[in-house]
Request: fold
Amino acid sequence: MVSINIPEFRYAGSQQIALRDVSIEMQPRAAVLLHGDNASGKSTLGRLLCGLLRPHSGHVLVQDKEVWRLRGRKRVRMAYYLGQEYSLSFYHATIAGELTHAMRLGGNNTDQLPWLNEFQLPDTDTTPLDLGSCAAWRLGLLCATLVGPRVLFIDELPSLQSAAVVECLRRTVQQRRQAGDITVVSYQRRISLTDMFTQEYMLINGKVSE
Reply:
């Protein structure tokens, strides 16, 4: 379960309010769509949810734990943030290296690399930085899936004109719901895939509207 209650959040040194009066509850198996314009607070909310930012007031709890207090593997297995600049999160020379690292974070030490065909990824010896934006996103999504966090926050999607992106997103959401996990997807506008989601929120100037 996720419980978010943030009366107000500002970045250090800024007078601008990034989030205000945010109150959201998510139950296991939830699939949540969060949409809003640029600078509406979607990424800030995602970073707070995944422990990358510390709330100044209120609380952000995943399974009754404050994620920002967790470190390393414990944090990413509780809440994983797949950011917009996903290609910058690659640290290994090959796709195989990225997937192996993700499986180890998730506690799976098998040498078998799963779901390459389902995520339409090229040969495992390919360098991640050579991938196009949609393929790099699919690799980032597969890595997040292999870590197996209780909460996955996907911050923005690449082009929804790509059938591969839509299929990978749908597969991931379905698999995670079956496992009892929570998935949150943020996008600039309300998307047509609403049948995929159990909850929907709009962020307007840092405030949440259902």
